[in-house]
Amino acid sequence: MSKFVDKISAYIRVKSVRSGAIKFIVIADVVLILAAFLLGEEAIYNTLPALVSPVLQNPRGYESAFYAAEWVALITPAIALLTAWFAHWRDERLGGRGIKDIITRVVGTNPYNLDTDVIAASMTKQSVLAAIAAALLVVIQIFEPKNKMYGALLKYLSSCGFAFAILFLLVSMICYDYASRFRWPAYHKAQLVRKALILDVLSWYFLLTSFVLTTALISPRLSVLTCIAAGFLMWWYYFFPREGARAVNYSSDNDVKVKDLTESKNFYMDVLGLKAHKLKDGKVTLRARGGAKITLQPESASFDAQHLSFTMTAEDLKVAEEILKQKGVTPKPKLETWSSAGGVETRVVTFKDPHNQHSIELSASAPTRGDDLTARD
Questions:
Q1: CATH no. for residue 316?
Q2: Which carries the bigger pLDDT value, residue 143 or residue 376?
Q3: Buried b (16+ CB within 10 A) or exposed e, 80-113
Q4: Strand 275-280 to strand 307-311: parallel, antiparallel, or no bridges (unpaired)?
Q5: Which helix (H) or strand (E) holds 136?
Q6: From CA 103, how far away is CA 121, in angstroms rounded?
Q7: What is the DSSP letter of 3?
Q8: Residue 13 clears pLDDT 80, i.e. is over it
Q9: H-helix or E-strand containing 333?
Q10: pLDDT for 249-302, tens place per residue?
Q11: Domain boundary among 174, 206, 238
């Protein structure tokens, strides 16, 4: 039983968070669409009076029953927020190549752009969002829906959302303003930008949720479709697809022992552009361009370091070196040239796998520009 659980756990770690998130979104959206469009209007018509009316007391005698589509429109934003949280959590925990994961692993622990122009642009965007929120807050107050009780509830929820969105935007703008106004040390300036960004994200979610609820005043079904479209757009911008394989393994297929399967998998996929091929017997197989495969095998005991060789284009080698530097790995370059048909120049970079101490060699060849071909370190 434990082996089965380990295999399932390893499969979840290897499986793309990006594809898992879109599957979850599609399933949730199908359920919401079916509930909003196919359930009869009388299906849950009389459930609200016993649940909500005593709480709201309904002093004006509004019609207090909600149709199925109206109920779905009310719960759809909550499901969307839960889905977003789940995607963020899996991205950070499993390394799903979403924005949060990329910032943590590639950009670094201090990813904020502290240029004054960038901060000023953020403040401008905040001002526009605050103006939109204020305008929508006024519009919903003068709109009169057919279902008075339903409209009153939507107005209350969306008004609260717009109010908090405006509040967070105003405080966020103060943080951005102070970050750009004074000559702070980089650390303190970054802290102000970090706080502004947190408030920025919160205000955006409040604004989007309130906008969806406001749309429900016009049409509950339109509100559901709007929220579904927002979910797909958020997934599309948030996740980065895996880059195409850059490296070619010019030795035979290798079985590589590693200490941590997830960390090693992410390292080889990020630096070398290898693609996840399959998971079998607790091992992960990565595929390089050209079809060569590397199988990562977790090993708790000590093992001997191995030597792995790859070729890639000169441009891809530059990308790999930059990623290595961002990960704190210092490669050792060597430039070799020799006479050939027109001359060939080869750059060789070697470094140690930081997780397992394997020796990795990357090489890229390109035609030389001159006739003086010599070998040099």
A1: 3.10.180.10
A2: 143
A3: beebbeebbebbbebbbbbebbbeebeeeeeebe
A4: unpaired
A5: helix 116-142
A6: 21
A7: H
A8: no
A9: strand 332-338
A10: 656 677 888 888 888 888 888 888 777 767 777 788 888 776 778 888 888 888
A11: 238
Q: How far is CA 305 from the centre of its chain?
A: 34
State the average pLDDT over residues 56-67: 54
Task: Determine, yes or no, domain membership for 11.
Answer: no
Q: Say yes or no: 332 and 281 in one domain.
A: yes
Domain holding 227, by residue range, is 17-238
The closest of 34, 158, 30, 28 to 83, measured between CA atoms, is 28
Residue 33 pLDDT: 87
Query: H or E segment at 297?
Result: strand 293-298
Query: Taking a C-beta distance cutoff of 8 angstroms, is the pair 337, 368 a contact?
Result: yes
Q: What share of the chain is helix, strand, coil (3-state, %, to 5)?
A: 60, 15, 25
Nearest to 334 by CA among 369, 376, 271: 376
Structurally, the chain folds into a number of domains equal to 2
Please state the length of the chain: 377
For residue 310, report the phi and psi dihedrals to the nearest 5 degrees. -140, 150
- Strands (DSSP E) contained in 181-292 are 248-249, 254-258, 275-280, 283-287
End-to-end CA distance of the chain: 55
The verdict on 183 and 71 lying in the same domain is yes
Q: Please indicate, yes or no, whether residues 215 and 353 belong to a single structural domain of this protein.
A: no
The amino acid that residue 320 corresponds to is A
| Chain segment 176-186, per-residue pLDDT in tens | 999 988 888 88
Query: Are residue 49 and residue 133 in the same domain, yes or no?
Result: yes
Q: Is the pLDDT of residue 245 over 90?
A: no
Alpha carbon 336 to its chain centroid, in Å, reads: 40
The string of DSSP letters for 160-192 reads HHHHHHHHHHHHHHHHHHHHHHS---HHHHHHH
Residue 204 burial (CB < 10 Å; 0-12/13-18/19+)? middle
Q: Determine contact, residues 344/366, Cβ cutoff 8 Å.
A: yes
Tokens 């201090």, located at residue: 110
In whole numbers, what is the pLDDT of the chain averaged over residues?
78
d(CA 117, CA 251): 49
- 205 and 330 share one domain: no
